[in-house]
Amino acid sequence: MINTLLPQKPTTTFENAVADNISAMLAYWDNGLVCRFANAAYQKWFGKTREEMVNRITMQELLGQLFKENLPYIMGVLDGKAQTFERTIALPSGEIRYSLANYFPDMSDGEVKGFFVHVADVTPIKQLERELSFTNQLVGEQNTRLLNFANTVSHNFKSYSANLETMIELLDAATSEQERVKMINYLKKISKGFSQTVYDLNEIAKAQNLSTATPEKISLHEFVDKSIEILRVQITTTNAVINNLVNPATTIYANPAYMESILLNLLTNAIKYRHPGRTPNIDVTAAVIAGELVLTIKDNGLGIDMKKFGNQLFGLYKTFHKNTDANGVGLYIVKFQVEAMGARITVNSALGEGTAFSIYFKV
User: Fold this and answer.
1) Which of 142, 206, 348, 354 has the smallest number of CB atoms closer than 10 Å to its CB?
2) Phi, psi of 13, deg, nearest 5
3) In sequence order, which residues have a C-beta less than 8 Å from that of residue 79 and are 6 or more positions away?
């Protein structure tokens, strides 16, 4: 039933004018949940005028489906406890607005006579919160990409630097013209690859967002061959065999600098973590499986204890063997670069048997 209790004195025209010039919804509801006062803001939010509300409407009739959601707070304020909560409200126009509601009990002799309502539009604040959250996320991603970029440059240059240094030493130690010509040819190939790497990294540096740098159509077979040439010294000195089994017609859209870095890291690891009891043998294959192009680099090296280290494999600074030159950065970079290109990477390995890294590119 509608509570017939009325406010002690009617509001004046001046009081109504003050309330109507406040953007927040202001109202008074008695303990029977009948409206005894409402300002003009309710017309914007609920399409109801003061005349349609005061002494004529219950809170349940006004709120409709929102009533059940607000009921815990209504019961709380009728129990004499102030309530504050947020709520989304659909305006008559269909627009969704965010509100911050406050219910304040009207107490007299320990009895709740009703409660005052103040509901403010906090949509601009919510929008700002979302923008700030997005900005913070963007800054975090950019910082991660910058770190990845720095590590990519460091790793790529380190590979070239080590090979150049070794080649120069071998050139100085060459005892025949044939050996010198051979070393010079290797130096030319390394120099050409180095120049291309500098160009690719420079192009990435120009992009606002490293992970969204425009991919290029590249020949996967040629990139594997290029990586093999860059690592020629390590291959020769360890008697490693790298089999490029990728079909020469296979192409993918990828970031060239990332692709080179990924291949160099995985092939270098396959050589670095070779088994001491057998000649390193590395197969590089590519096949379309279930709508994805799967690039696999499989070796017969030391392997990894996946039960022990599987969940740490791509962690930063995580190492799983006792090599003095292991720094736990390579696989971290590889995973970041793979995912930045919209691909994914998996590992299949057994201790003492070898490891296979598979990268799944969307066709």
Assistant:
1) 206
2) -60, -40
3) 112
Q: Report yes or no: 98 and 88 within 8 Å, Cβ to Cβ.
A: yes
Start-to-end CA span in the chain (Å): 67
DSSP-derived pairing of the beta strands 241-244 and 281-289: parallel
Whether the Cβ atoms of residue 42 and residue 120 lie closer than 8 Å to each other: no
Q: Does domain 129-362 have CATH number 3.30.565.10?
A: yes
Name the packing angle between helices 123-173 and 256-272 (round to 10°).
60
Burial of 164 per CB tally in 10 Å (0-12, 13-18, 19+):
middle
Highest mean pLDDT among 154-158, 251-255, 322-326, 327-331: 251-255
Place of tokens 């060239």: 256
Please state, in angstroms and rounded to a whole number, the distance separating the CA atoms of residues 345 and 227. 19
Listing DSSP states for 93-152 in one string gives TS-EEEEEEEEEEEEETTEEEEEEEEEEE-HHHHHHHHHHHHHHHHHHHHHHHHHHHHHH
Residues 6+ apart with CB under 8 A from 120: 23, 24, 25, 99, 100
Counting residues of the chain whose pLDDT is more than 90, the rounded percentage is 51
Fold classification of 13-121 is Beta-Lactamase (3.30.450)
* Residue boundaries of the structural domains of the chain: 13-121, 129-362
Given the DSSP bridges, would you call strands 216-219 and 241-244 parallel, antiparallel or unpaired?
A: unpaired
Spatial separation of the C-alpha atoms in residues 63 and 70, rounded to whole Å:
9
Q: Count of CB atoms within 10 A of residue 27's CB?
A: 23
Report the pLDDT value the prediction gives residue 200, as an integer from 0 to 100: 60
Mean pLDDT value of segment 58-85: 95
Q: What is the pTM of this model?
A: 0.48
Whole-angstrom distance, CA of residue 61 vs CA of residue 53: 10
Q: What is the CA radius of gyration of the chain?
A: 35
Q: Which residue has the higher pLDDT, 8 or 28?
A: 28
Say how many C-beta atoms besides its own lie within 10 A of residue 143's C-beta.
Answer: 10
155, 261 Cβ separation under 8 angstroms: yes
The SS3 assignment for 90 reads strand
